[in-house]
């Protein structure tokens, strides 16, 4: 099997109806922009990929370099995410196996999933918690924002959240220890706060260690800037966030597994990205924290969305990524104008 043709298709996905207002559009204006890549083999099989975080088409010379090559030359690839996952989708379909079998030994059948939204006032946040719980989620990630009080937002969520529901607060790695310690100390009193991400700048190693000693909530470090090993040696966090290029994500995930340190996969895209993330979580030994995608932001997708049941989504077992593309929906998404 050789790669015969590669198509790059910029698309716009329709936002969920709850964002159909001025505030919703202002909060989410750019998340509808994605790049879909189709890798077509000389045996007519097609692999699909999608990425939101970098929706710009690749330079043509990078595409041309893959034509005529074997997709299996790109195991553990560090290509653009949409292209990288399309290759895994194609390889799995060729062998009639799920993509995780090309990544490692399966250790779990399902992974916990977190809902998400961009910053909003307490009343809107409470409504987001309600919709997430109704959709089956049991974890919700939220970024702090200078316009809103995290404690007020948390109290609003407490009134809505069902038993066992947890908030994942991302504090944006821009505070000092003296500023963030009182905030986290108060958040720790809430029965629904379960995770604190990036409370301090990445460079404040001593601050991270001090905070970790003083609180019981698990600290999440997003993409360690020293590569992860140094942060583990210094004991700065309980959970390390990984994601991005496929080869790097798998390498980091297996390294954290050897260290018996929990990792959390965050990757932005649609249902295709969620499928890839579930395949990675299936084989990484300590990737038992919730996965984070943004597939819950859209009213519809170019494939059927993967359901969340009691907080978990199952790893797809079909060939490749294990989700079927609706070519009609893809064409409609390609013709749809981006939100201005």
Describe this structure in words.
The protein is of the alpha/beta class. The protein has eleven helices and twelve strands. The protein has helices at residues 22-28, 60-64, 81-95, 122-134, 150-158, 177-187, 205-214, 229-234, 246-258, 271-283, 327-335; strands spanning 3-12, 33-41, 46-51, 110-116, 139-143, 166-170, 193-197, 219-222, 239-242, 262-265, 291-292, 312-314. The strands form two sheets. Strands 4, 5, 6, 7, 8, 9, 10, 11 and 12 form a nine-stranded mixed beta sheet that branches. The chain has a three-stranded antiparallel beta sheet with strand order 1-2-3. 43% of the residues are buried. The mean pLDDT is 96.
List the main descriptive attributes of the protein structure presented here.
globular, nine-stranded mixed sheet, three-stranded antiparallel sheet, 340 residues
Topology:
Layout (H helix, E strand, L loop, with lengths): L2 E10 L9 H7 L4 E9 L4 E6 L8 H5 L16 H15 L14 E7 L5 H13 L4 E5 L6 H9 L7 E5 L6 H11 L5 E5 L7 H10 L4 E4 L6 H6 L4 E4 L3 H13 L3 E4 L5 H13 L7 E2 L19 E3 L12 H9 L5
Parallel strand pairs: 4-5, 4-11, 5-6, 6-7, 7-8, 8-9, 9-10
Antiparallel strand pairs: 1-2, 2-3, 4-12
């Amino acid at each position: 099997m050789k790669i015969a043709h590669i198509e790059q298709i910029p698309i716009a996905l329709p936002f969920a109806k709850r964002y159909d207002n001025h505030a919703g559009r202002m909060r989410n204006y750019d998340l509808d922009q994605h790049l879909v890549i189709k890798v077509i083999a000389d045996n007519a099989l097609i692999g699909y990929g999608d990425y939101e975080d970098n929706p710009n088409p690749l330079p043509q010379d990078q595409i041309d370099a893959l034509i005529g090559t074997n997709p299996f030359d790109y195991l553990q690839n560090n290509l653009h995410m949409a292209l990288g996952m399309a290759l895994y989708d194609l390889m799995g379909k060729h062998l009639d196996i799920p993509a995780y079998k090309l990544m490692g030994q399966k250790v779990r059948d399902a992974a916990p999933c977190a809902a998400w939204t961009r910053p909003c006032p307490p009343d809107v946040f409470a409504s987001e918690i309600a919709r997430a719980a109704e959709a089956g989620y049991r974890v919700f990630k939220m970024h702090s924002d200078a316009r809103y009080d995290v404690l007020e937002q948390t109290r609003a969520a407490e009134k809505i959240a069902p038993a066992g529901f947890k908030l994942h607060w991302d504090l944006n790695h821009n505070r000092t220890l003296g500023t963030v310690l009182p905030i986290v100390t108060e958040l720790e009193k809430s029965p629904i706060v379960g995770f604190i991400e990036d409370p301090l700048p990445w460079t404040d190693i001593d601050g991270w260690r001090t905070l970790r000693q003083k609180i019981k909530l698990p600290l999440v470090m997003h993409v360690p800037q020293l590569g992860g090993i140094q942060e583990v040696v210094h004991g700065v966090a309980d959970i390390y966030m990984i994601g991005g290029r496929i080869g790097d994500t798998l390498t980091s995930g297996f390294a954290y597994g050897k260290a018996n340190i929990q990792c959390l996969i965050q990757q932005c895209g649609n249902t295709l990205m969620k499928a890839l993330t579930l395949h990675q979580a299936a084989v990484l030994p300590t990737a038992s924290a919730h996965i984070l995608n943004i597939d819950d932001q859209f009213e519809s997708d170019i494939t059927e969305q993967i359901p969340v049941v009691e907080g978990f989504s199952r790893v797809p077992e079909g060939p490749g990524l294990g989700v079927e593309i609706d070519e009609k929906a893809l064409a409609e998404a390609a013709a749809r104008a981006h939100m201005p």
